[in-house]
Amino acid sequence: MNILFIFSRHSGDPHDSTLTKDISDEFARQGANVYVMTMLEERYGQETSLSLENGYHVLRVKTGNYFNTKTKREKVLTILTLPSKFVAAAKKNLSNIKFDLILAHTPFVSSNKIITPLKKFFGCPAHLILWDIFPQNAWDIGIIRNRMIFSFFKRAEIKMLLAYDQIWCMSDGNVKYVREHYPELVTVKIERLYNSAKIIPLQKINRTQLRAKFGYTDSDVVAIFGGNMGVPQRLENIFALAKLAQDEHLLAKFLFVGSGTQTDVLRESVKQLNLKSIQFVEQLPRDEYQDIVLASDIALVSLDQRFTVPNFPSKTTDYCKSGLPILASLDDCSASDYGDFLVNIARCGRFAHAGDAQALFKEFLSLYQNSALRCKLGANGRKFY
Asked: What is the CATH number of the domain that holds 349?
């Protein structure tokens, strides 16, 4: 089987583990002839190249900068010019390959301006892993406020989805939402596909030593949040939880690992609220991040209460594979889907409705006071993973 994966990022380190890289690695391990096409941002000063990496072919296409750009204009320009660059690079470097399948993921590398011409050129079907329901998610939280702009992106979204033969959603709630809200997709198969990652044994760590690096003791109950810190995460709801825990003089610590558009605002908010139990850490190498997750007690998920689309946070995979119980602050839509997953399907966590600090604190206390419950939920998550 010849399969072309289209990823926004793809690490050259064979030991790295990401949601996308684990998929291509596994297809290659099972004997597929794998090709990955991914971005090569101009900041690296390199030209488009096709090379053999980790046992399969990787086509790195020179594009503009997208990640951690200084201006929105630069990111938008990259998105607008990327389709033509990807299509041209694929036709030039992969024209001798008879592909059986193209697989892409949202957001922008899934554009129909990439998929439609490549499906025609290679004569094969294409599948989509749907991680973002855009632009509705951006409209919900005010990132898009202009109705004309929203309509423009909505039309582009429909064209994009119609380019695929199969759409894979992360949860049953996602499947239901897409089927109900996109009547145009009558010819497209829509099914659930949980996020996945390579199953590996839990690493042995020196818990005491790792905690000491961040100023924590073995007596502290450490709650960790890892990933993007932007408007969608509404981390102010976690700050309200931390304030209640601090007022009750609990031995609770809150560690935020990562960065995002709201990082500076969040740091300032923590100072204003005098939340001494909260600590921020910039992006860590993946192995170091996984170690500190293993040394923590509770994993945190937070979503803005204004969302009307079901979200299934990708960080769930890392939390479950590490055997941590999950505590989530969720919008009403995700509560009925992701919340059901936590409590009734994987049985690996607890949740409260976003904005209800007292309810979230109550769920936090149930985990804080009961180490056996934490272990049970964490083990359930690991088993489900």
From this structure: 3.40.50.2000
Tokens 């499947």 identify what position?
A: 175
pLDDT band at residue 333 under the 50/70/90 scheme: very high
Q: What does the pLDDT look like over 27-65, one tens digit per residue?
A: 999 999 999 999 999 999 999 999 999 899 999 999 998
Q: Strand pairing of 49-53 and 56-63?
A: antiparallel
Work out how many domains the chain is built from and give that number: 2
Q: Is the per-residue pLDDT at 380 higher than 90?
A: yes
Mean pLDDT, to the nearest integer, of 202-227?
93
My answer on whether 141 and 186 are in the same domain is yes
Residue 356's CB is within 10 A of a number of other CB atoms, namely 15
DSSP per-residue string spanning 24-71: HHHHHHTT-EEEEEEEEEGGG----EEEEETTEEEEEEEE---TT-S-
Q: pLDDT band for position 198 (50/70/90)?
A: confident
Indicate the residue type of 127: H
Beta strands in 227-283 (DSSP E): 252-257, 278-281
Give 245's pLDDT tier (boundaries 50, 70, 90).
very high
- Same domain? For 98 and 247 the reply is no
Give pTM, 2 decimals: 0.89
Q: Is residue 197 part of a domain?
A: no
Q: Rounded distance, CA 324 to CA 319, Å?
A: 6
In a shared domain, residues 167 and 303 = no
Strands (E), the chain: 2-7, 33-41, 49-53, 56-63, 101-105, 126-130, 166-169, 189-192, 221-226, 252-257, 278-281, 298-302, 326-330, 349-353
Task: Taking each helix axis as running N to C, give the angle between helix 147-162 and helix 112-122, from 0 to 180 degrees, rounded to the nearest 10.
Answer: 20
Q: Average pLDDT in the 123-135 region?
A: 95
Does 46 reside within a domain? yes
Structural domain harbouring 155: 2-192
